[in-house]
Every structure is written in C-alpha cells, then in structure tokens.
Amino acid sequence: MRSTLEKARKNPASMKAKILDVARRIFGEYGFHGTTTRMIAREVGIDISTLHYHWGDKNDLYEAVVMDVNNDLGKQLLKVEKVVHGSSLEERLKISIDMMTDYLFDHPEISNLVRLHYFSRTRNEVDIDFKVPEFSGDIARAMDLTKDAKHPSPRAMMEVMSIMHGMHCFVSGENAFRPMLNLHRRKYIEMVKETLNFIFIPAFVFRERKKRKGGDRPLSKTVKEKKAGKIKKS
C-alpha cells in the first residue's frame, strides 16, 4: 500500500492521485461506514472497476487515506517545530496555534477524519490508526512541554490533545458554527485563533512563571481545613 501511495503522491496528475484526493474528502464527510467506493468513483468520474484497479477495495483505500493524512501532518509539524525553535513559550504557542489552525482549515478533511475515526460509534475494520500519540509527542516537544518526543508525560499528552481537539472542533464544526456567529470565513478563522490563544496561552505562561518562582505556594492551614471539611460554612 505504501508503494501505491508513493506513486500517487509523486504524480499528482495521475488517476491514483485524483482518486486519493476525492477519497480523503468523502471519507472526511461521511466516515468509513458512510462512504462507498461507488460514491468516490462517481465523484471522480470513473467506473467502479477503475477505482478497484488503482486502489483495491474500500479498506485498502481508507488505509491509504489514513497513511496520507499521517504523512501530511508529520511534515506540517516539522515545519512548525523549525519555525518556533528558540522562541519564548508564549511565542511558540501563538505561532503553533496560528500555523496549525491555518493548515487544518486549508485541509478540513483531516479534522473530519480524525474526529470521525475516534469518536464515531462504529469503528472501521482497517488495522491502521492515526498517529495521534506520536504527533502529540512531536507537538509537545515543539511547544517545549517535553524534551523527549517519544516519551512525553501523560499530562503533556493531554495538554496537547486539548489544544488539538479545540482546533479540530472549530474546523469540523465550521458549517454549523459560522452561521450561528454570522461570520465570514476569514473572520471566523481569525476569531478561532484568538479564542484558542485566549484559552491556552495564559494557562501555560502562568504555569511557567510559577515554576520559575519555585512552584505552587503551600496551602494555608485555613484553606487545608476547608478542603478537608473541618471548618463549617457560616
């Protein structure tokens, strides 16, 4: 499957590449179970036998789509890491959110595929997954939340997942959210970035400042007693 995918990407004008691009979009809209190879073939303008000749069955094509998305995400994360390297935490977060948000809005099928793949009730039969754990480590390292991308802490992983989930949510929900907000697409994307920055940057920067000052201050005796329920409310 990898060699077939490589052939498609080396020749973007080929029939293999055209089928793959349409498959990414349709799998992103309808998920694995909601998509048929006939839907993809019809959109490309070919018969079903031509699709099977180039990509095999639906499982094979879906596997290629997942691998292709993984490859694209990996390349984008390397770009982000190179840009943010050596910057302050606040700058790293702002640049990372800006670049990844733009990228995902340019390729909305990625967010749709990830969310459908992990959160739909029906799982597909393909023995391949999106590289979310690996990518979380790469993002955590890019943001300097961990030094070891291969072994990030569960906390660093969850923090990255919260940021990425926020992006995926706004990208996947654009058609529902934008009419509610009465925003043009350009303004919507701008406000998504502002919202993500507002939510995440202060929290990370505040924690970094606390670390520099020696961590959290110990709780006072009164607060400890309140938490333990020893002091009755008046």
Polypeptide structure, described:
The chain is mostly helical and 234 residues long. The protein has a single domain, classed as Tetracycline Repressor, domain 2, CATH 1.10.357.10. Helix content is 75%, strand content 0%. The protein is built from 12 helices and no strands. It has helices at residues 2-10, 15-34, 37-44, 48-55, 58-84, 89-106, 108-119, 132-142, 154-172, 174-181, 185-212, 221-228. Helix 1 (2-10) crosses helix 2, helix 2 packs across helix 5 (58-84) and helix 6 packs across helix 9. It is elongated and about 75 Å long.
Keywords:
mainly alpha; Tetracycline Repressor, domain 2; 75% helix; elongated
Largest sheet: none
Order of helices and strands: HHHHHHHHHHHH
Q: Beta-strand level of the residues, as a percent range?
A: under 5%
Secondary structure category: mainly alpha
The CATH architecture comes to Orthogonal Bundle
* Number of helices in the DSSP assignment: 12
Query: CATH homologous superfamily, by name?
Result: Tetracycline Repressor, domain 2
Overall pLDDT, averaged? 85
Shape: elongated
CATH topology name, in short, is Tetracycline Repressor, domain 2
Alpha-carbon Rg, integer? 22 Å
* Low-pLDDT sequence parts: none
The counted number of beta strands is 0
The residue fraction in helices comes out at over 70%
Count structural domains.
1
User: What's the N-to-C terminus distance?
Assistant: 69 Å
CATH class category name: Mainly Alpha
